[in-house]
Predict the 3D structure of the following.
Amino acid sequence: MNISSSISLFERAQKTIPGGVNSPVRAFKSVGGTPLFISKAKGAYLYDADDNRYIDYIASWGPMILGHAYEEVVKAIQRQALSSTSYGAPTKLEIEMAELIVSMVPNVELIRMVSSGTEACMSAIRLARGYTGKNKIIKFEGCYHGHADSFLVKAGSGVATLNIQTVPGVTAGVANDTLTCAYNDLAAAEQLVAENKDQIAAIIVEPVAGNMGCILPQPGFLEGLRRICDQENIVFIFDEVMTGFRLSAGGAQEKLNVKADLVTYGKVIGGGMPVGAFGGSKEIMQHIAPLGNVYQAGTLSGNPIAMIAGYTTLGILKGNPHIYKELEEKTIYLRDNLHRVFIASKIPFVINQFGSMISVHFSDHAVNDFASAASAKNELFKKYFHAMLDRGIYLPPSAFESWFLNNALTKEDLDRTIEATKESLSEISGDQVQ
Ligand SMILES: *Cc1c(COP(=O)(O)O)cnc(C)c1O
């Protein structure tokens, strides 16, 4: 494949942009090679600067659940743009967006819009601290809640991909208020709470983890955390930035039937525009300014272009529940056939899948937490990634990321992906023999 335009764009980008990218995982650092510069996308396909076509399994890390350049969404954005791109004053559209979200997701009475998942999670823990009058939070190793200081402790996603142990610039004071234990280890969480009696403001969790590959909550894990939070007056925060509006119209809360006190959203909620949100009961949310004194604000929060993209996307998802069924069927078809192809290759593997999230770890043991994800053979992932890319399949450039299916994918696309995996694995086995 000729990627000469991407190669020269990457060289040029590095002169004025740190590492040539505006978000680290895009740089392909852990898999090596040149990141592709994308010029356009439509449906399930991305086109790079040399006009090569790729089947997209990133979907902008989740948001493009309907496929790229979905006509209704694009038209709504175009219409709104003619009435100006920002006012910095309230709009009816924001009410409609809030009402739509409240009608879709459980346990959210009030919702505040922000511009990223990071902001949503950062604001949610500030609110939990303000509400409870306590300082510490518990997060799980390998979970990623954005790049706010409090969360850059044993974080997943790019922090794990780049293998950064401690992030310079995060003060010890802040880091010490973030306690961590292994995902799916309920006993360890219970012990942290006991050791820090009356000091824990919040437990924040990805209900299905997607930032160390895709990792499922084991039965009883989330329910156990819910019980601990009830007993100890701790705010239970579901970080649904990935799972919200993806696993179902009501997100992980609905799909897994576990109630959260606060929920954070991002990714799908903006339909491809920069949007995040956090919400919960009136009881807690009324502490946010201007109702309460927990200050939180944003010049471009509720931006009309962002709102119309999100509102249109969520409206389509709400009105067409079959989309979730189709997405899940496609993902299961992909999983089962990848399974078949991997078995035949004799290369050790683990495929974790939930709804339209799926990932492959090159491991001979179950992958249930960060330690088991990190001990997989990521050298093999790197080879697999490049072999797939050469065949026009665009996977996340890290084993610590989930793949996200979009509903524009056809059976032919999935079959091509399975065939490409078969070829890639035989290429990898060939390498191993040499
Ligand atoms: C992506 C992500 C975030 C951060 O969202 P940004 O919009 O990148 O700031 C937070 N939490 C989870 C679970 C995520 O996947």
User: Anything to note?
Assistant: The longest strand covers residues 200-205.
